[in-house]
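Annex B, item 7. Sequence and structure tokens for protein A, then protein B.
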Amino acid sequence: MIKLLALDLDGTLLDSQKQISPRNKEAIKQAEEKGVKVVLTTGRPLAGIRTYLEALALNDPGDYAVTYNGGLVQENDTGRILSRTTLTLEEIQQAYAIFQKAALPLSVLSMDLVLDLPAPLGKKSLYGQNAPYLKHKKCLLSDLSETGVYNKMVASFTQSYLDEQIRKLPKTLWETFEVFKSQATLLEVLPKGVTKARGLKELGKILAIDASEMMAIGDEENDLSMIRYAGIGVAMENATAPVKAAANEHTTANDADGVARAIEKFIL
């Protein structure tokens, strides 16, 4: 029996227009009425999903979200943090040197604020297009302090150039951090061990829900961990090849009510 439904946003619950379809809304509502805990699991901060939480009526006491790809587990109504893993200043300095050498821009997310570090010449970050709902602030690496709260780093640029430069990044980056693409033009760098699966595991402890009682639906690299972790891992039709291979079930695309179809089949 499924007790928790973990939903990725972009490319999964949201269609190409970043909207939640009426059929998806209705299916989620019915799942909740059956007692299933619906949890948005996203790389975004809580501030970046408020509109969707309101649209789904997931802002009540007892509603939770896994944000920053598992870096935070939070209460939706209060924002209270139940689990948190962050980056150190030393780790940011190390990553920044690597990305500068690779001629890629790097931004640091500190809760609801994006700190845009100086970019290589002609390589201005496109992250403002990826996350227009967040406040941006230009700053120098020397402006960051040891006591700052740093959730993740992102490199955003055109897909072809980003993919080309990713192949040049050193293995040490993957050995030190969790590194993956969450969108075609977005590479994310998180603390080692931080994944959506880890966030769900922490939330599962709080709610006394086992992985076997969870269903996770996703489409991108950052969804791989929870697809593998949940008892039922569902890949969207528009998912990447690795996600499709890892999933034990598949559904239609995000523009064809894929989330609703999975809920109707496995929960309702």
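Protein B:
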Amino acid sequence: MPRSDKELEGVTLLGNQGTKYEFGYTPHVLETFENKHPENEYVVTLDCPEFTSLCPKTGQPDFGHIVISYIPGERMVESKSLKLYLFSFRNRGDFHEDCVNIIMKDLIALMSPKYIEVTGWFNPRGGISIVPFANAGDDDHQAMVQQRRLAQLGRVK
């Protein structure tokens, strides 16, 4: 059954031809919609291969690939609003580790997922690639939080 107009009330950016692209950090653009299957444990993965931010010291651009995976609770993030939100990092000066943690915390505040993880694969600068990983979960998913962190510690590319 398709979503009703009431279920889509908070989704204002999708299909909007007058989208405004802001150039500052804009967590307020994030929108959610109702998860029709909150009783199911399923994973949503959002792959963002064109993430950009600025080095906070030099102002040089940094390019990365952000992957967000989460087990939704009652709300889910709308993908166009996420795109606009991630675009807002383009002119923000933060270290890679900060970007990943800020994204995770903003999404937790937005939708209270059962579990979430954010990984950033940043292109090398000065011969070093940085791959920050941040995750969090509700009380029922703490074992998963620890398991995924340990898996990341053992990851070799």
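Comment on protein B: The two ends are 43 Å apart (CA to CA).
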